[in-house]
Design a protein that fits this description.
The two termini are about 20 Å apart. The protein has 2 domains: about 1-175 and about 355-375, Glycogen Phosphorylase B (Rossmann fold), CATH 3.40.50; about 180-350, 3-Layer(aba) Sandwich (Rossmann fold), CATH 3.40.50. The protein contains 14 helices and 16 strands. By secondary structure, the protein is α/β, with parallel strands linked by helices. The strands form 3 sheets. An 8-stranded mixed sheet has the order 3-4-2-1-7-8-9-10. Strands 13-12-11-14-15-16 form a 6-stranded parallel sheet, with helices on both faces. Helix 6 links the parallel strand 9 (about 145-150) and strand 10.
Length: about 375
């Protein structure tokens, strides 16, 4: 099978979409399939055997880390030379439109995947005026695809309610060889606690931007003297957040990846995820694979894999008091935290990338076999 992939974001940027895509490319190669990736320029020219075609892209004004490639670019000859059996566009906004247009030109089945709650993020950024137009645009884009894959059942319900058509589930996995309790490290805990390894340690991981609501953790710390917080990640809100947490026992650890990130999870006590607009929440599943009890909003992707009171705790999505109470419950009841962390670990071990991505390959093959999707090139 030959799969052409168009992605709005790629290496060297680090986020859930990029991590998912790199796992996908590795898995497709292991299963004997060929890939060509079209992405914003500035990244590697290959990932394994997959060729990466870098396209000119420009920083998005509202979020400079995101680079936009204009949809007017022409890659049809390169795509025709690759002869794809299927085209998959990840989070199509602008660059993805190139893939959608050219898939139609070549008569290839077209899959789009929905990754990010952009309208929800816009609302968190105070850009309410753009929310309805964004939903209309995304609906128009995705309804051109033969199938839209969603990372969670909550996302399917949201999109179906807004008129998106032909929806199916593509969940996410976790690398349990990388993320597991054996990565616990005294040196990492010393770093994350700023030299206070015996203190209870909360961990937050993610992009430092308004939609992640990291600032919600300040009143949590105020309510629990002696508890420490480590924030792993970077982003446009870092300076503002450093000012917000000034004078508190908080460590800003910056970006971490690979085994270093796994060690940060495994060396902490409780994982806290304040965001409420997540279509999945990869970092929550990674924390669970490291044996951490998790706390997340009762919304979006985490609804699919957190069992309330069994593998983690939920808080009411718009209530800081509810978040504070949930954290207090785990910090003050270590036996409960240990029980939830153990159950979270056992659950995460059933969510390997191999299982999840083999299911996706089955969806690819099913689309290729559908005769009504075979069009004249």
């Amino acid at each position: 099978m030959r799969v052409a992939i168009f992605t709005e974001t790629f290496l060297p940027k680090i986020d859930g979409i990029v991590n998912t895509l790199t796992y996908l490319l590795t898995h497709l190669e292991q299963r004997g399939h060929e890939c060509m990736v079209f992405a914003p320029d500035g990244g590697p020219s290959r990932v394994g055997r997959a060729q990466v075609v870098g396209l000119p892209a420009y920083p998005f004004p509202l979020y400079p880390e995101l680079r936009i490639a204009p949809p007017t670019l022409d890659v049809l000859d390169q795509l025709r030379g690759f002869r794809p059996d299927l085209v998959h566009t990840l989070g199509p906004i602008s660059l993805g439109l190139i893939g959608m247009r050219d898939a139609r030109q070549l008569g290839a089945p077209l899959i789009a995947s929905y990754h990010t709650d952009i309208p929800g993020f816009a609302a968190r950024w105070g850009l309410d005026l753009f929310v309805d137009p964004l939903w209309a645009y995304l609906r128009w884009v995705h309804n051109q695809a033969d199938l839209t894959l969603c990372p969670s059942n909550a996302t399917i319900r949201e999109l179906a309610g807004r008129g998106f058509e032909r929806l199916s589930l593509w969940s996410r996995g976790v690398d349990t060889q990388r993320f597991n309790p054996a990565r616990r490290s005294a040196e990492m805990r010393e770093l994350l606690t700023d030299g206070h390894p015996d203190a209870p340690l909360l961990l937050a991981v993610g992009r430092l931007s308004p939609e992640k609501r990291i600032a919600w953790l300040r009143p949590v710390l105020d309510s629990l003297p002696g508890v420490r917080l480590a924030i792993v990640g970077n982003g446009p809100q870092r300076e503002e957040l450093e000012a917000t947490f000034a004078g508190t026992p908080t460590v800003f650890a910056g970006y971490m990846t690979g085994l270093e990130l796994a060690s940060a999870y495994a060396s902490s006590d409780v994982f806290v995820f304040p965001a409420a607009n997540e279509t999945f929440g990869n970092v929550v599943l990674e924390a669970m694979a490291c044996g951490l009890p998790v706390i997340a909003a009762r919304a979006g992707g985490p609804l699919d894999f957190i069992a309330e009171g069994q593998t983690g705790l939920f808080f009411s999505p718009e209530s800081q008091l509810s978040l504070i109470q949930a954290v207090q419950n785990l910090v003050l009841d270590q036996a409960c935290a240990a029980r939830l962390g153990e159950a979270a670990l056992h659950y995460a071990q059933t969510r390997t990338w191999e299982i999840v991505l083999d299911t996706l390959i089955g969806q690819y093959e099913s689309m290729i076999r559908r005769p009504e999707l075979v069009r004249a090139a």
